[in-house]
Every structure is written in structure tokens, then in C-alpha cells.
Design a protein that fits this description.
heterodimer; A: 6-stranded antiparallel sheet; 6-stranded antiparallel sheet; 16 strands; B: about 750 residues; alpha+beta; 21 helices; about 45% helix; Protein O-mannosyl-transferase 2 (chain A); repeat (chain A); PMT_4TMC (chain A); glycosyltransferase (chain A); transmembrane helix (chain A)
């Protein structure tokens, strides 16, 4: 690597500007690069590898086989150890089991990775019964090796992928071999590939996308050939895969996107190409890199929702309509009266994610916290204390009597909500709320349904005109306190012990349209009204897709570190500052620690610095019009273009983490690390 | 002298301006003068009305008061230069700082010089009008277009409102525009007269204006970066110029580096220097800062720590403050109560004496550093200082129990060890009270542990757990004090594991009774500690950047997307009795046209770009260059001042958009002139276009006049008139209930 450095575009020694430091002499040029030059027609289009001279042609498959073998050997070595749950296996293993058991769950990542884990487990005979409760639990008789093996298999593929990518970019066998060695012997990569995690799957697709992008670039001289189509669509497939495993995959989409735009721009400038041809190029890329991945991504979710059709731990995160899809959920196949009427008994669900039901109980707010009246909270579980009766604000006649006529509640009506268990009215007044001091307190007030004018609420449906009926489950409703004009909402903050750690409910004076202040009616009991089946509100697939993405995004941004929690910072990663403990709390345990190979990682850092230096000096030299030999010109083209692609990949996978507010871990650096390794390999 | 002169023709040219005589020729552009006067009138008219606190004046005003009283404060909203400018206004008006800034709408008392407090922002706002004119002229557009731009800025209601009060946006916009203008001037001089006097002047002014913009608000940083990028691009073109020698290129690079990087950094530092020099008294925000910083302020902690011994020795009596300061500052504390035998969740404890972190000064915060090998608790003569790596015991002063930790789960953080003061219950639980002192910010491994300055970790010798503040607050049995634990899995450095000695004295009392008296008495001895400016600067800067205000919901906050269409307004002030009110509301026609202009610019540029790629040249080369450079400044300026808000998590208001909209407004005349010059081919079309522009401009004027009452706050409007002003349902015009 050191040998190759001075060779990069340093021809016109004496005329170099002082900016390029003192390495002006054309030093001994690197073997690998020179060999590559000899096989290329300067300036001409790249010739396919098959045209290479015979001895090398034989060496390449052998090298590839060797690299692959070594890679598999290093990843599969002592795979079943340790025979207990390591680190995040507790999550992803568990989610694999959920797929096998078909129970619905919620996770912040898209489903592909976990589906594949589940599939691998299913095929290898794991029955989904192991609970994966916490790291360190022993697997006992459960068959976990299949899942680990699957991850290790994908992790092993990284090495040949990287090898082929570098080979394609630099056309130099030693460079490719160096890259492969670096990855084979990087302890961090090995560790990360050996367990049931999403990262090997993500990195597999990511490297696959890069490899196929590079391959399709090198097919550019014969567009619309079979191999061109193959690599282009494979890029699309890999993009869908990467994004489907984790949203971090979007960065590789960005990388491919930028590369494609550059490509198209190049084609546009080629005047020998007619506009019709250009249109074809454009369409082919739209088809393979946008439509195909989108279709696959959507299909992935379709499978996800089809497989997970039983109610499970993820229900509460989703809306009522969504829950009605799940077998075993209490909303599944039930039928309720369609329109809200006076005298009905209802539950109200807050529309923010995991918002909970409007709830009250016999306990009062403690001394010193607002008025000493009955608590009103939001409660995540189903309970008889969530039941409220809708009454007219001005009359207290018993509407449930069979003789009285049915009267529907309409948009804009003023109503009163009486808590069924305690017969107190939903009430608000200008006392500050317990936690959100700028909001008003909400209480239960009155005895047996008689209260005061602070119990009156105006009910409004979002986006509806006055006088319309209110639909159960489907209408998004807000309740406006008539006396103060504030809106009933849930702040999302957890009350202290006196509030049973339920969620605070307040009346907000800020008239903002947020899910916090919107509710829908979920249960609805009114014997006088005919029930309709809930199937009519079956959400369309597009709605389900949108909702699950909203929930994932909110979940992702909700992962914020607590004040005193020690998390690692992005700048720790490249310098291998500290690792991550995978397993083994006690000193006697079998311990696994995620840590990169320091030689390799620091070497990578040095290379990045060197690369920047070389690029800048080459670019300046070219701009100054320094006359270069054709060989050097070709070399600098490789440096700027090929190296640029990899460098861009590194930047795209590293820099964005600086801007994220969420909890970051060491392993987030690994994709970036792959790119820096490839960069190292190139020199 | 023997300086070799042959290689210095460029240096010669660099300093050439010194050789010529200084000649002043006056040439007055009446357009500029008129625009300036109109700007001044529009911004300064009735400046001290309303004589009440308007919107964010309530926020900035408190800092002006603190400046007047020289009391230290930390404001996380930005660097201090803007606050200092406002305070300068107060200083010139003779403000004594005595006003309670507690609510919007409060009447100013007689001692508040309202006019001079609002003068500087208003002047800055007024000068934006001629600046806009000049920028368009420098972008090589016609004087007619330049006049149009200036008039649009002049008649922009939101800019007027924002300039007329003690707020910072107009100052920020002024410096941003000044920086852009001086860079353009510099660039235009570049071709003919590099290194001339005016070349240097405009180059340096660019740097100065950039640093001022950054110093007023951090948003200025993005314009600075934009200008740096443009300068980099221009320099890149210069590299390609074969006529320039390497040496002269180097000189150009150095000059730019000096003016655009070194000077701004130096200026930025100087803002903080002035800030810290002005504010030397301790005040309400002291507790955010470290002990060392607090000790450097007059009053407050300095009064207590003045004259403490510097080096901690065996036998020293100390209080230990946690460095993190979150959730609140607190000191290592113990008291006679023990941990409950069983917690509420059924887990057991060691039932030993509680060790907590206590947010108030208390005699129970005192600890004595003891040498494990000796019995005595006094400082020997001469004192034996404790160094990095030494093993000590910490004895609680009042109860004389030893700080201890063991393999028992902590009350609230079960993964960490419980920390207690050891009570010998005579059961199989031996004392484990040896701690190794590790100085985190040491310079060498033999550093002495210093009061206030040293940040120390205590590593437990038996279990290698680290003494840490968990941040959780204990239940009733622990008096809601903060939990202290032994962290076994210490993953690197975190401030919650670091402590520093705040109060300190050498213990002299042999007997416990005497010692208790001694612990209650104030410390006294003499060594003063002063932090260097850089240390103070780094700390303050860090705090400004990391301080988070929570619970930032606001009635008039908006999201960045609302700004383009101006869906929200902000009510700044309402007359206590009449319907007179002031709103931040833009000129609807201008905002809409600015959006259209940006859209047209982008589409046209893309179109031209694609056509040029196919070697079809619609524009002559120089017209294309003008078009591109105008876009770099205006669209670029809009983008860098707008898009970053999408990544910010803080509460956003409409006024954050004003710098961006200013750039967008500058784009309108550019696009109009381009359309008329290049796309209106026939004379008839041209005159029709001009007529359209006149009609459009009168509508801008009409809207300005319509909204003038809510821009200036007078005259007072009736209820129907106010209702008529509510052009959008989402606008919140205040209508008094009858």
C-alpha cells in the first residue's frame, strides 16, 4: 500500500504547486497498479475480465475460491458457542420465534431481516418455543444453530463480495486479495457475523448492492445486454433487501442513486446518443432501481402482515382499525353499533402511538397537585375503568330506558362524559396539570352524574361539517372544553406512583392538530342500536403500510438515551475506542466482546487520510494542467472515480450518525467500516 | 537590507496600495440615498410605541438587564454578540437594568430607554434596504431590478415588524447581507485589481460580517459556509487559470484563509472575551457551570472557596461535587439513616448507612481523605498530598463511617453495586472501603489531586466498580435524594462518574467533637484560582451548545413547512384596552411571488442545464454566468437558511424563516429581469410584461398598506376591520370579546 502511493499522479514534479507536499519524485510505482495498466488499452472502454491473459484468468477463480473458503472457515468456526443468548439475540431471536408462531409484534426495523431469521429457524427445525428472555439464557435443547448459521453464511458472503467489487474497480488482483484478507481477519466482522443479528443480513444486502452497482457500471459499454439487465436489476433487489432489513439501508440507496444520476448525466452529455436512447436508459433505471425495489419492499410487508395474523405483544402500538385484523384481539370480528348515540357506553383511545384509553379510578390527585379531585389518566390496558357514558349536557334523563328514542351524537354537540364505575363527570378547570405545567388539569368531578358547567365538552370530528354523525372507530374526534376552550389530550408523560404510573391526561390550551389531542371511540355498547360488523372498516393494504411506517419512525426517534446512560459516540467508532460486550456478565462466563482488529482499523483510518491527500493533489495537478502520461492519467481516473465511489459510501454510512439523537451503538459503524476496508485494499 | 526582492512581485502588488496617495472622490447614488432614507423612515417611525414589552423582548430584555448589572448568565439560544449589541443600546440610553421582564405586554417603567434599546435592530433593518439594492447591482443586474429588490424589502411587513423591536433577526439579516455584498464587491474587484486597497477592504469586511452574523445567531453559520463554498469554487476556477503563477495562487489562498477563516475565528473568540470580561459577577446560571468556573466569578462560590488550600492531602476535609450537574448539581452525601432491609419490590439490601447525592450544601456533605495505613484524620505537617493512583479511604465527617461498596444490588439500579457507609454488623460482610483516586484530567501520572481543578474518578479496589451518580432519585426512605452507585461495567468516560473537590480545608481536630465544630465552620485560607480565558470559553461554548430547554411548547410555534405558505402568524402585542395589535405577518403577495420566483428559477436552470449538456446554448455565455451566480447567492442563501430547520428539534417560529425569505425576495427581480430580457422576444411582449410588473407591484404596495395597522400597531382597528384582515383561517388575529 505504501509502495503504491507516490505513484498516484505525481508526474510533473517540478511544476507542482507547493500544496502537494514534498513527495514529488516519481517513486517506485506499485506492482498491482502497473500490472493492471499493462492489460488495458489506455482511454478505451474497459475490457471484460474474460479477455485477461491466461495465467491470471486461472488465478482469479482460484483466489476467489480460496478467499471464500477462508471466509466461511473463519465465520463458522465454533459457531454454536456460547450456547446461550448473546446481546441482541434476545430481540431478534425472539422476533424470529414470533414469525414461527405467527404472533404480531412491533419493532422499529422493517421486517425482512427478522423474517429471514424466522425462515432460517423454521427450515432448520427450530420450533419457536424458546422464550429468548434475556442475554445469558441457555438454549438447552433448542435448535438455534440454524439461525446462527444463516447469519454466518450471509456474513461470510461479504468477503467474496468485497473481493469482487475491488477487483472490478481496480482490476488488480493483489488489491482485491488485500481487501479480502482485511475483512477475513477483522475480528469485529467475525464477531458480528456469528450471532442472530440483523447486521450480517444488512451488510450482505449492502455489499450485494455495491457489487452489483459496480458490475453494472462495468457493463456500461454494452447496454441492454443480458448481463447489463441482470446486474442492474440485481442492484435493485439488493437495495430493497438492504432497506427491508434496517432503515440504515437507505444510505446505500442514496449511494446508488448518486451513482446513477452521475451515470445518466454522463450519457446525456454523449451527443452520439439520441434522446430516444437516453429515454430508454432512463426508463430502464427507473424500472430497475425504483419500481422493482419498491415492489419488492411492498411485497415484503405484504408477507409480513400475512404471516403475522395473530394478536400479540405489538397490538397496542397500532390503531383500532389495524387491531381488528388480528386473530385473538378483542376487536377481531366483533360488531358494534356504527354511530355514536347518547346513552352509549364507550371507551376512548388516544391516537398518539401507544396512547392508551381514557381512564379514571377512585383515587384522588394528591395534596398540592391541582385540585384534590378524582384522577383521570390514560391507561394502556383494557379495563372496566375505561368505560364512559355519553350524556347530554343539559338533561340527566336515563337514556338507557328502553322507551326513550335513540338520539345520535352529532359533530359540534356539547356533551358530558360520565365515568361508568364512579359516576363522576369528566371535568377540567384552570389548575395546572400535574406534569405539563402549561396545560390544565383534568379530573373526575360531581356526584352521581351531577356536576357543574366545567363538565361540558364540545365534540368535534376532524375534517367534518356541523351536524354529521360520529362513527365509532373511524372518526377522529377531539373534545373541546366549553368553559376554557382547551382540548382534551394525553401528554404521553408517565405519572409518578400516586398515579399508578399511568399516563397523564391534560387539557391543552394550544390548539394544535396533533395525535395527542385526538381520540377515537373503540368499544361502543348501546342495546338499542343494531350492530354492524367491523369488517367494513378493514383498512386497505396501503393504509396498513403507511401506519406501520409511521409507528416505526416514531419508535425510532423515541429511542433516546437517558440522562446518565453511557452510550458510545460516533467519533469513538473509527478509532476502535471501545467495544461492545456481547455476552458474559460474570467473570467465569464464556465472554464475547465485539472489537475490531486494531491494526486493520487504524490502517483504514490512515488510508482514508492518504486517499484524501492523493485525491486533492491529483485534482489540483489536473486542474493546473500538468501534463501527465496516459498511464498516469488512467491511474488518476481510477483513483478519482473508483476510490470516490467507495469513499462516498463510507461517508454516507458514517456521517449521518452524527446527526441522530437516538441511542447509538458501536455496531452502527460496521457498514462504514466495510467501505473503508475496501478503500485500504485498493492501495 | 538584504531581502531578496526578485521573487516578490506579488508581495509587491499585495502591498501596492500603500504606495499610492489616498484620494477620496465622492460620487453619490441618489437611488441609494433615497432608499436609505425611506428605510429609516419605515423602520424608525414611532419606534418607542408601544411602550410595553413586545413578544421576545421579554426574553432578550432579561439579558440586557444582566449585562447592565454585570451578572453572568448562560443563554443556549446563541452566542453573545447579539445580546451585547442589544445591551449596547441599553448602555447608550443609560439603562440601569432595573426592570422585571416577566410578561409580554407589561408597561415599561420610566427608567427603560425604549427608543435606544430598539434603535440598533431598527437601524440594521433599515440598512437592509440599500444593501439589497447594492447586492443586485453587484450581481450585474440592472438598476431597475435593484430598485425593485430594495422596494420589496422596504415594503415587506414581516421584516418591518421584526426590525422595530428589541429582537435579533434584523441584525442577523443585516450582517448576512453585508457579508454577501462585500464578497461580491471583492469578487468583482478580483479580475482587475487584486490586492488593491479596496480589494483588501471588501475581503476583510466579508470575514468580519460573517463572524458578526455567526456571533448574533448560529443560523449565520450557514451563510458563512455558503460564502466559504462559493469562495472555494471561485478559487478552484483560479487554479485552472494557467496565467497565474504558483506563487501568486499561494498568495491568493493565504489572503483568503486569513480573511475568511482566521479573522472570523478570532472575532468570534473576541465576542466571548468581551462577554466574559463584562460579566464578572455570579448570577442565576452559575450552577450550570463547573466549580472552577463558578469560582472565577465574583460572589457566589468564589466567596466560599477563596483561600482554600490547593492540594488535597491525607487528612483533608472535602466536599465532592458530581461533575455532570444533571439532573441537578449535587454533592456526595451520607446521613445516619440506613437502607431499608427490604425494598418495595422485595429485593434485599445490606441495611447499611445510606450514601446519596444531595443537591444542597449541608454539613453531611463533608468527607475526610484518610490514608488506609494510618489512623489519624488530621493533616500532617508538612501535608502529604494525594496523587493520581493513590489508594485512600473516604470517611464521612459527621458519622465517621467509611465509604464502602460491595456486591449488593443498588436500590434503583440493580445492575450496579450499592454504595454505603460501612456499619459492622458482625456478619460475613467485610468492609471493602479502599478506593483508588484517578485524576481524569491529569497531565502526568504523578499529578497531585487539586481542589476544584482536578476531575477525579474513585475506583473501588476490590471490585473495580466506579463511584457514579445514577441520576435516579430515591423514594421516601432516601428523602428523594439522588442515588449513588458503584458502576461495575464502566464503559469509558462519562461525567456522571467524575467528581471534583469543591470546598476543602486541612483538618486539624483530633477529636470527633472538635471535628464536628470544625466541619460546621466556614473554610478560610488563601489561594485564588483563575481559569484561563480559553478554558472558560471552551466550557461556556460547550454549555451553550449542549444545554437543552425542555417543555418548549408554545402557542405560536410552527413547523418549517408552514412558513413557505405563511400558514401561521405570531401575535406580538395587543393593546390592553383597544383593538390595536402587532403581528408578525409577511406581505402575502411578496411571499407568494418569492416562492414562484424560486420555482421558476429552479425549473429554468434545470432546463438550461439539460439543454447545455446536449450542446444547445439558449443563453449567451456571460448571461448564463450571471444567471448562475445570482442563483448561487439567492437560491443558495434561501436553502441554507431554511433547510437546516428540518433537522432541528427545537421549537420553531415564523421569524426563523426571515433570513431565508430575504434571499428569496432578492430572487424576484432577478427572475423578472431575466424573463423580460431573454424570454420576451418581441417589443410588444416586453411592454406587456412591464405593464404586468407595474400592476403586480401595486398589489404589493396595496397589501403593505392593508396590513400596516398590524405591522406598526396603530391605528387601532375595529372588530370588522380585524376580521377582514384574517385572509387565512389559520391566522390568529386577536379579536376582543365584547
Amino acid at each position: 500500500m505504501r509502495r503504491a502511493r507516490p505513484g498516484a499522479a505525481r508526474g510533473g514534479g517540478p511544476r507542482m504547486p507547493a500544496a502537494g507536499d514534498g513527495q514529488a519524485g516519481p517513486g517506485p510505482r506499485g506492482g498491482p497498479l502497473r500490472r493492471r495498466e499493462s492489460r488495458r488499452v489506455p482511454g478505451g472502454p474497459a475490457r471484460p475480465a474474460a479477455d485477461a491473459p491466461p495465467p491470471l484468468a486461472a488465478a482469479r477463480p482460484a483466489a476467489l475460491a480460496l478467499v471464500t473458503l477462508l471466509s466461511f472457515a473463519s465465520r463458522f468456526h465454533r459457531l454454536p458457542e456460547p450456547p446461550h443468548v448473546c446481546w441482541d439475540e434476545t430481540h431478534f431471536g425472539k422476533m424470529g420465534s414470533y414469525y414461527i408462531n405467527r404472533t404480531f409484534f412491533f419493532d422499529v426495523h422493517p421486517p425482512l431481516g427478522k423474517m429471514l431469521i424466522g425462515l432460517a429457524g423454521y427450515l432448520s427445525g427450530y420450533d419457536g418455543t424458546f422464550p429468548f428472555q434475556k442475554p445469558g439464557d441457555r438454549y438447552e435443547q433448542h435448535n438455534y444453530v440454524g439461525m446462527r448459521g444463516f447469519c454466518a453464511f450471509l456474513g461470510s458472503c461479504l468477503v467474496p463480495f468485497a473481493y469482487l467489487t475491488v477487483l472490478e474497480l481496480s482490476k488488480s488482483l493483489p488489491a482485491a486479495l488485500l481487501t479480502a484478507c482485511i475483512l477475513i481477519f477483522d475480528t469485529g466482522c467475525i464477531t458480528l457475523s456469528q450471532y442472530i443479528l440483523l447486521d450480517p443480513i444488512l451488510m450482505f444486502f449492502l455489499m450485494g448492492a455495491v457489487l452489483s452497482m459496480v458490475k453494472s457500471n462495468s457493463c456500461a459499454d454494452r447496454p441492454f445486454s443480458a448481463s447489463w439487465w441482470f446486474w442492474l436489476s440485481l442492484t435493485g433487489v439488493n437495495l430493497a433487501g438492504a432497506t427491508g432489513v434496517k432503515f440504515v439501508g437507505l444510505f446505500v440507496v442514496l449511494l446508488v442513486g448518486l451513482n446513477t444520476i452521475y451515470d445518466l448525466w454522463d450519457l446525456l452529455g454523449n451527443l452520439s446518443l439520441s434522446l430516444v436512447m437516453f429515454g430508454k436508459h432512463l426508463l430502464a433505471r427507473v424500472l430497475c432501481l425504483i419500481l422493482l425495489p419498491l415492489a419488492l419492499y411492498t411485497a415484503m410487508f405484504a408477507v409480513h402482515f400475512t404471516v403475522l395474523n395473530k394478536s400479540g405483544p405489538g397490538d397496542g402500538f397500532f390503531s383500532s382499525a389495524f387491531q381488528s385484523q388480528l386473530i385473538g384481539n378483542n376487536l377481531h370480528n366483533v360488531s358494534v353499533p356504527e354511530h355514536l348515540a347518547y346513552g352509549s357506553v364507550v371507551t376512548m383511545k388516544n391516537l398518539r402511538m401507544a396512547g392508551g384509553y381514557l381512564h379514571s379510578h377512585w383515587h384522588l390527585y394528591p395534596e398540592g397537585i391541582g385540585a384534590r379531585q378524582q384522577q383521570v389518566t390514560a391507561y394502556l390496558h383494557k379495563d372496566s375503568n375505561n368505560l364512559w357514558i355519553i350524556k347530554k349536557h343539559d338533561s340527566d334523563t336515563d337514556l338507557s330506558a328502553p322507551s326513550s328514542p335513540v338520539e345520535f351524537v352529532r359533530h359540534g354537540d356539547t356533551i358530558r362524559l360520565e365515568h361508568k364505575e364512579t359516576s363522576r363527570n369528566l371535568h377540567s378547570h384552570q389548575h395546572e396539570a400535574p406534569l405539563t405545567r402549561k396545560h390544565f388539569q383534568v379530573t373526575g368531578y360531581g356526584i352521581n352524574g351531577t356536576g357543574d358547567s366545567n363538565d361540558f365538552w364540545r365534540i368535534e370530528v376532524v375534517g367534518r361539517k356541523t351536524g354529521k354523525l360520529i362513527k365509532v372507530l373511524r372518526s377522529q374526534v377531539r373534545l373541546i372544553h366549553v368553559a376554557t376552550g382547551c382540548i382534551l389530550g394525553s401528554s404521553g408523560k408517565t405519572l409518578p406512583k400516586w398515579g399508578w404510573e399511568q399516563v397523564e391526561v391534560t387539557c391543552t390550551p394550544y390548539l394544535k392538530e396533533t395525535p395527542n389531542s385526538l381520540w377515537n371511540f373503540e368499544d361502543h355498547v348501546n342495546p338499542k342500536l343494531p350492530n354492524i360488523s367491523l369488517d367494513v372498516l378493514k383498512p386497505s393494504f396501503a393504509e396498513i403500510l403507511l401506519e406501520s411506517h409511521m409507528v416505526m419512525i416514531r419508535g425510532n426517534s423515541g429511542l433516546k438515551p437517558k440522562d446518565n446512560e453511557v452510550t458510545s459516540k460516533p467519533w469513538h467508532w473509527p478509532i476502535n475506542y471501545q467495544g461492545l460486550r456481547f455476552s458474559g456478565v460474570n467473570e467465569t462466563d464464556y465472554r464475547v466482546y465485539l472489537l475490531g482488529n486494531p491494526v486493520i482499523w487504524w490502517l483504514n483510518l490512515v488510508t482514508i487520510g492518504l486517499y484524501l491527500l492523493i485525491t486533492v493533489s491529483t485534482a489540483v495537478a489536473l486542474k493546473r494542467g500538468v501534463q501527465l502520461t496516459s498511464e498516469l492519467k488512467e491511474l488518476s481516473r481510477v483513483v478519482l472515480r473508483g476510490g470516490g465511489q467507495i469513499m462516498l459510501g463510507w461517508l454516507l454510512h458514517y456521517l449521518p450518525f452524527f446527526m441522530m439523537g437516538r441511542v447509538l451503538y458501536f455496531h452502527h459503524y460496521f457498514p462504514a467500516m466495510l467501505f473503508s476496508s475496501m478503500l485500504t485494499g485498493k492501495y | 537590507t538584504l531581502i531578496p526582492l526578485e521573487f516578490s512581485p506579488t508581495f509587491d502588488r499585495m502591498l501596492g496600495f500603500l504606495k499610492k496617495p489616498v484620494v477620496v472622490t465622492a460620487e453619490i447614488n441618489m437611488n441609494l440615498v433615497t432608499l436609505t432614507v425611506m428605510g429609516l423612515i419605515s423602520r424608525l417611525w414611532g419606534l418607542s410605541y408601544p411602550r410595553a414589552v413586545v413578544f421576545d423582548e421579554v426574553y432578550y430584555g432579561q439579558f440586557v438587564s444582566l449585562y447592565m448589572k454585570r451578572i453572568f448568565f448562560v443563554d443556549d439560544s446563541g452566542p453573545p454578540f447579539g445580546h451585547m449589541l442589544l445591551a449596547l443600546g441599553g448602555y447608550l440610553g443609560g439603562f440601569d437594568g432595573n426592570f422585571l421582564w416577566n410578561r409580554i405586554g407589561a408597561e415599561y417603567s420610566m427608567n427603560v430607554p425604549v427608543w435606544s434599546l430598539r434603535l440598533l435592530p431598527a437601524l440594521a433593518g433599515a440598512l437592509c434596504v440599500p444593501l439589497a439594492y447594492q447586492i443586485l447591482v453587484e450581481l450585474q443586474f440592472s438598476h431597475c431590478a435593484a430598485l425593485g429588490a430594495a422596494l420589496l424589502i422596504l415594503l415587506e411587513n414581516s421584516l418591518i415588524t421584526q426590525s422595530r423591536f428589541m429582537l435579533l433577526e434584523s441584525v442577523l439579516i443585516f450582517f448576512i447581507l453585508l457579508a454577501v455584498l462585500s464578497y461580491l464587491k471583492f469578487y468583482n474587484l478580483q479580475r482587475h485589481s487584486s490586492f488593491s486597497g479596496s480589494w483588501w477592504f471588501w475581503l476583510l469586511l466579508t470575514g468580519v460580517a460573517c463572524s458578526c452574523a455567526v456571533g448574533v445567531k448560529y443560523m449565520g453559520l450557514f451563510t458563512y459556509l455558503l460564502l466559504l463554498a462559493i469562495a472555494g469554487l471561485h478559487f478552484w476556477h483560479m487554479i485552472g487559470d494557467q496565467n497565474l503563477s504558483n506563487v501568486s495562487l499561494m498568495c491568493h489562498l493565504l489572503a483568503r484563509g486569513l480573511a475568511l477563516i482566521i479573522i472570523p475565528v478570532a472575532m468570534y473568540l473576541s465576542f466571548f472575551y468581551v462577554h466574559l470580561t463584562l460579566l464578572y459577577r455570579s448570577g442565576p446560571h452559575d450552577q450550570i457551570m463547573t466549580s472552577a468556573f463558578q469560582a472565577s466569578l465574583e460572589g457566589g462560590l468564589a466567596r466560599i472557596t477563596q483561600g482554600q488550600p490547593l492540594e488535597v492531602a491525607y487528612g483533608s476535609q472535602i466536599t465532592l461535587r458530581n461533575v455532570l450537574g444533571k439532573p441537578m448539581q449535587c454533592w456526595l452525601h451520607s446521613h445516619t439513616n440506613t437502607y431499608p432491609i427490604r425494598y418495595e419490590n422485595g429485593r434485599g439490601s445490606s441495611h447499611q448507612q445510606q450514601v446519596t447525592c444531595y443537591p444542597f450544601k449541608d454539613v453531611n456533605n463533608w468527607w475526610i481523605v484518610k490514608d488506609p495505613g494510618m489512623q489519624q484524620l488530621v493533616v500532617s505537617n508538612p501535608p502529604r498530598p494525594v496523587r493520581h493512583g493513590h489508594i485512600v479511604q473516604l470517611v464521612h465527617g459527621i458519622t465517621t463511617r467509611y465509604l464502602n461498596t460491595h456486591d449488593v444490588a443498588a436500590p434503583l439500579s440493580p445492575h450496579s453495586q450499592e454504595v454505603s457507609c460501612y456499619i459492622d454488623y458482625n456478619i460475613s460482610m467485610p468492609a471493602q472501603n479502599l478506593w483508588r483516586v484517578e485524576i481524569v484530567n491529569r497531565e502526568s501520572d504523578t499529578d497531585v489531586w487539586k481542589t476544584i481543578l482536578s476531575e477525579v474518578r474513585f475506583v473501588h479496589v476490590n471490585t473495580s466498580a466506579v463511584l457514579k451518580l445514577s441520576g435516579a432519585s430515591l423514594p421516601e426512605w432516601g428523602y428523594r435524594q439522588l442515588e449513588v452507585v458503584g458502576e461495575k461495567l464502566s464503559k469509558g468516560y462519562h461525567q456522571s462518574m467524575v467528581w471534583n473537590v469543591e470546598e476543602h480545608r486541612y483538618g486539624k481536630s483530633q477529636e470527633q467533637k472538635e471535628r464536628e465544630v470544625e466541619l460546621h465552620s466556614p473554610t478560610q485560607m488563601d489561594i485564588s484560582k483563575n481559569l484561563s480565558f480559553m478554558a472558560k470559553f471552551m466550557e461556556l461554548q460547550w454549555k451553550i451548545l449542549t444545554l437543552k430547554n425542555e417543555d418548549t411548547e408554545h402557542k405560536y410555534s410552527s413547523s418549517a413547512l408552514d412558513w413557505i405558505t405563511m400558514d401561521t402568524n405570531i401575535a406580538y402585542w395587543l393593546h390592553p384596552t383597544s383593538g390595536a395589535q402587532i403581528h408578525l405577518l409577511g406581505n402575502v403577495v411578496t411571499w407568494a411571488s418569492a416562492n414562484i420566483a424560486a420555482l421558476v428559477y429552479t425549473c429554468l436552470s434545470l432546463w438550461y442545464l439539460i439543454r447545455r449538456r446536449r450542446k444547445i446554448y439558449d443563453l449567451p455565455e456571460d448571461a448564463w454566468q450571471l444567471w448562475v451566480s445570482a442563483g448561487e447567492i439567492c437560491v443558495g442563501g434561501w436553502a441554507v437558511n431554511y433547510l437546516p430547520f428540518f433537522l432541528m428539534e427545537k421549537t420553531l417560529f415564523l421569524y426563523h424563516y426571515l433570513p431565508a425569505v430575504t434571499f428569496q425576495i432578492l430572487l424576484i427581480p432577478i427572475v423578472l429581469q431575466h424573463l423580460s430580457d431573454h424570454l420576451c422576444r418581441s417589443l410588444l411582449l416586453k411592454s406587456m410584461f412591464s405593464a404586468l410588473i407595474v400592476a403586480w407591484f401595486s398589489s404589493v404596495y396595496f397589501v403593505y398598506c392593508t396590513f400596516r395597522p398590524v405591522t406598526y400597531g396603530e391605528p387601532s382597528l375595529s372588530v370588522t376591520e380585524l376580521k377582514d384582515l384574517r385572509w387565512k383561517d389559520s391566522w390568529n388575529i386577536l379579536i376582543r370579546k365584547q
